[in-house]
Design goal:
With about 160 residues, this protein is an alpha+beta fold. It is about 30% helix and about 30% strand. It starts with 6 loop residues before the first helix and ends with a strand. The structure holds coenzyme A (COA).
């Protein structure tokens, strides 16, 4: 997958102090805390447990010092990787944490399968980040988000 990204996007070293590793069940209390501060309709603990239990998925954690700074959850479906969730603690944003997580994810998911995701049409920060990594819009799911009836932008990286 990474061969379709520019060298600058893929080969940039992880910024100092950030480490990326597998997400563990023991991270989930910190994950839930970030999740609740990041989304209007946060995932439940049970949803994270379910994703972590899938052997084919890729769930990664980023730490800065001894704190969990962010995480990404990606599920493998038949012929596609579905980027299900990515969030960074408000205390650690704009320091390259999400970039480090996504680079590691693309590295691990490397192969012929494309990535897809849904994002709120008003989430300009996330859309800009995905476009930076090469994702392109491929339509809208009308009223996808039940809390406010907002549309989802469907994006693909292939
Ligand atoms: C969106 C979010 C995950 C970004 O996390 P972050 O750690 O602050 O992001 P980063 O600092 O790593 O930036 C990511 C990369 O995208 C680039 N980028 C970010 N916004 C960009 C934009 N608008 N245009 C171009 N590039 C952009 C950055 O330059 C960075 O690239 P680099 O690593 O090469 O420097 C974070 O703001 C967040 O958790 N938001 C709430 C949850 C959310 O909306 N998640 C996405 C749901 S679909």
């Amino acid at each position: 997958m990474s061969e379709i990204l520019s060298r600058e996007q893929t080969d940039r070293p992880i910024p100092g102090g950030i480490e990326v590793r597998r997400l563990a069940y023991s991270d989930l209390p910190a994950v839930i805390s970030i999740e609740r501060r990041s989304f209007p309709t946060p995932w439940s603990l049970a949803m994270f447990v379910l994703e972590l239990s899938k052997p084919s998925g890729i769930c990664l954690a980023a730490t800065r010092g001894d704190e969990l700074a962010g995480y990404v959850v990606c599920s493998r479906y038949d012929q596609v990787w579905h980027l299900m969730n990515v969030a960074v603690s408000p205390d650690h944003r704009s320091h390259g944490v999400a970039g480090a997580l996504l680079r590691k994810l693309f590295d691990e998911g490397r192969g012929k399968l494309p990535f897809t995701l849904e994002v709120r049409v008003t989430n300009r920060r996330a859309i800009g980040m995905y476009e930076y990594f090469g994702f392109r819009s491929a339509g809208v799911r009308p009223r996808y988000y039940h809390d406010n009836g907002e549309d989802a932008l469907i994006m693909w990286l292939d």
